[in-house]
Amino acid sequence: MKVILHDLGSPYAGLIEAKCDRAVEADGKYAPCQGCFGCWTKHPAECFMKDTLQQVCRILGQADELVIVTKNLYGGYSAAVKNVLDRSIGTSTPFSTYRGRQMHHTLRYGKHDLWKVIVYGEITEAEKDTFRYLAERNAVNDGFARSEVIFLENLSELEGWL
User: Most-buried pick from 66, 125, 141, 160 (CB within 10 A)?
Assistant: First the structure.
């Protein structure tokens, strides 16, 4: 299943939905993660907060290909996208295992294929390096076999990369 997580807003909804199985819009109309870990233990992969991200762990956890479209924020995800990623901690369990000679949480939904990040907005070379490293580490931590980062000069190029 291909999932696209984006912060582009409703003008891009049609394009995004036509290119994936599920779309998650990081529109900021939800609460930030409370750090209660209930999605790990009390009600696995489901947030106790009754908003649009209540099932985000299950949606992102079942993605074979996760495409994240985000505005650059100092070499990292936009605040809205980061908020969604924070709320998806329930894609793993509180138990630990080794992956690639490193300790990580056990995956609730198994391994995935591609963690792809499409970055738009002004970005320096140092920020590009930071983003590449961030995407690579996020992919390993969330059980994705590979990561890819694309930097767009203009959002008109987006359709070709989805």
Answer: 66
Tell me the C-alpha distance between 139 and 141, whole Å.
6
Closest C-alpha to 141, from 109, 114, 102, 113: 102
Beta strands 2-6 and 22-25 are parallel
Percentage helix, strand, coil for the chain under 3-state DSSP, each rounded to 5: 30, 30, 40
Looking at residue 79, its amino acid is: A
Strands 2-6 and 92-99: unpaired
Domain ranges of the chain: 2-156
Is the full-model pTM beyond 0.90?
yes
* Cα 151 from Cα 72, distance rounded (Å): 9
pLDDT in tens, the chain (162 residues): 999 999 999 899 999 999 999 999 999 999 999 999 999 889 999 999 999 999 999 999 999 999 999 999 999 999 999 999 999 999 999 999 888 789 999 999 999 999 999 999 999 999 999 999 999 999 999 999 999 999 998 999 999 899
Distance, CA of 68 to CA of 111 (rounded, Å): 18
